[in-house]
Amino acid sequence: MKNDYRLYLGIALFFSFACSFFSSIPIEPQPMTPEFAPQEEAQALPEIEISSTSLPVAVTTEKDGILSVFDREGYTLQQVNIPGVSYADENNLHILSILPHDNSGLPVLYYSFEQNNSLLISHNGQISTLLSVPEFSGMVGAPGKAVLAYTRVEYADVNLISHLYAGTISALPTAAPVYTENNTEGWGLVAVAVDVEAEMPVGIWYSKRPWGIGGDIVFDPRRTLSYIDLRTGTNSQYLGAEANPSAISTDGKWLAYTNDEGAVAGTGSMAIRNIETGVGLSYPLQNAVDQRGAGEASFSPNNQYLAWMEGSGFQMADIPNFHSVVRVGNLNGNIIAEFADTAFVAASGLNTVARVEPVGWFDDNTLAVMARGEAWNDAVLLMIDIPSQNVRFLAQGVFVGFIYP
Questions:
Q1: What is the pLDDT of residues 251-261, one digit of tens each?
Q2: FRET label pair with 184: which of 71, 86, 125, 394, CA 20 to 30 Å apart?
Q3: With left for phi above 0 and alpha for psi between -120 and 50, is residue 301 left, alpha or beta?
């Protein structure tokens, strides 16, 4: 079983040198201008368009190269072939539109290593190539829109050079990078979110992750959080090296992150911070043997709750003893619900739930979670009604995104 887990995301070697490096205190937004003229202070963030993305109406999963669309009752609405998809998740796949109101198919952009390291579009049964990206390292799209940001990395001697791109689907094939960083310590850029105004990208949230590591990873080991305002060229840092950014609220006012200050790197507690006021708080970890920290956070649409996962034990031990728990808290710091992995076995239909994590919200009271079985790709989606804490089955497959009206 241990070999089924994401070896390429391993973190053991990373932890051995990271403890001393990730020790800075939380910082207020500070301008960084690696390619732009210096700014005295961070610029105001743009307003985020949320009219079409306030509440999702469907969810998508991938299984055996087929993307399926389910409504919140679990009925299949559409299926889309995505042949050659390298790894189905939100870093490698993006839904390019809202839910079609006619019989047209849902356009899907995805990365395929098999197909010449390319970004492909599947639409109405046709597969086309958007562009070839041999050094592709991940992407993120604006929900329900044909707008995304992606990164690619390359080595120059011992330095790692990252290029960050953003644009509409029509503009990306000829787009130049909006930001390039030359890192001497092996850290690559990763796009976290893209802000949109009038169907055009106006800003990019990005972080950094160590490149080429291996071991028993629980959470994507990202560090710092910065924002590039594409209208002004201002590049501002909002979280320091003690922070692993996990979520940005729909209205762009709250950040959720793992706070490793004073902890072994990768084992910190979940924390939130209001971008406008700078006020924040932390949620103490559950008591656990072999604590592995917190991550995979998600804000409810109106910022009523935050859901996240905490882990303990090891996935790649000779006898794996990893366990996960989904926790839900309000933004005052109170824990209102907790769901151990064993609580999902009956509803999931899996023999064993090896890992469970929140993936997002249908509304402020309805949380979607993904449970994985002994095999990594043996995954199902479930829904939790927060007031009653009732858990029910939703769909089979690996979560890849929500669909909006």
A1: 999 999 999 88
A2: 86
A3: alpha
